[in-house]
Amino acid sequence: MNSQHTTAEAMESAALDRCADLRADGRDHAVPVPPKVAARADKSPAEWAFQRVILHLKAFEEALSDGEVAAMAFAGGPSGVLRIQGVGFHAPDLVTFSGVDDDGLPVQAIQHVSQLNVLLRAVPKPADDPTPERIGFRLARALEETAEAADTLAQPDAPATS
Fold it and tell me: Does residue 162 carry a pLDDT above 60?
């Protein structure tokens, strides 16, 4: 089936796999979207943001010491940080972050993709946790497994052989 696309859709599709993150050390720290995750182009802005936030979270965690975990800081007010335990989306336009605050109380942030602003921060891991939780690694693995499962479902059934 041949589908028509607007010029904006074609430009967006061509831009989705491009990224750059040049820093003072002279290296590109870009976090590319794995081909299996990028393969499906019919995602809502919330799903695209959800997937890329997870990949950036994983990359951030790669640089943390064993005594640190990732948290999300909030701008303004005494809201502190949210130690990230989950990231989600609600298509077409909401991204959610869930976890606990400095006091261990449950916290959830809900952001519209047009207002998405995530500040990742390294904080000491809780003393009662033997190993630091690496939620970004776990979520990135789940993204790729979900993409593989979607590929399998999209494959036409193979002819039966006897």
Answer: no
